Amino acid sequence: GHLLIAAACLVDVFISDRPWRMIHAIHAIIFGGVFGIFSFFYFLAGGTNYYFEPFVYHIIDWAHPLRTLLVIGGVTVFLVIFHSFFFLLYRMRLVCSKQYKVRKEMARDGSRKQGEEKSEALLDNYQTRGELEC
Question: Of 80, 100, 115, 129, which one has the greatest count of Cβ atoms within 10 A?
Answer without folding.
Answer: 80
